Amino acid sequence: RKEVEQDPGPFNVPEGATVAFNCTYSNSASQSFFWYRQDCRKEPKLLMSVYSSGNEDGRFTAQLNRASQYISLLIRDSKLSDSATYLCVVNKAAGNKLTFGGGTRVLVKP
Amino acid sequence: DTEVTQTPKHLVMGMTNKKSLKCEQHMGHRAMYWYKQKAKKPPELMFVYSYEKLSINESVPSRFSPECPNSSLLNLHLHALQPEDSALYLCASSRDRMGQGISEAFFGQGTRLTVV
After folding, report:
1. Distance CA A89, CA A9 (A)
2. Which pLDDT band holds residue A97 (cuts at 50, 70, 90)?
3. Partner-chain residue, chosen from B96, B103, B110, that has the shortest CB–CB distance to A43
4. What are A33-42's pLDDT values in tens digits?
């Protein structure tokens, strides 16, 4: 089993709709969680950190479920510019290793 | 300023060449990383430096040699590469919380390397 797993998609989303997807992690000692977005042939860019209580940044909401070992990302009122690959990134405490999931591709269409 | 600067942006090298990739950050981050990314795949960790010391080497072939001259700079020296080493090489940095995990990492734009 991979350390961090994501549904590769693509998720085809009508403009203005809501889309949500999860990321599961296998190491219960994982402590830090992040969502990054990556556009084609560009570097990953931090979208948001994921906190235990869940957090929201504009149209984006991230949740952490430690019991089931997954994090989620919800995008409301999708824009064409939200089309990208969303990467789940997990870090285990006491180490500097950031482990990436395989990414979830989201395509927002008019 | 959350900028990580990588040079060069593009590099074409022959299999007998020696070249270096450079990375610089001025955020005071003490953890720095090299990742390799192939098309349609997630970044794969190569090396991690923590407080200028190599802390993780993910069994990377010796034709890749990292160097951390100071807390702001990270180099990746390349020698005798193979065509399959062609990829996007990404540098990143983050705060190191000394055993309490790390903060979010910021990535440079990458060096797109082609080995011919």
Report:
1. 17
2. confident
3. B110
4. 999 999 999 9
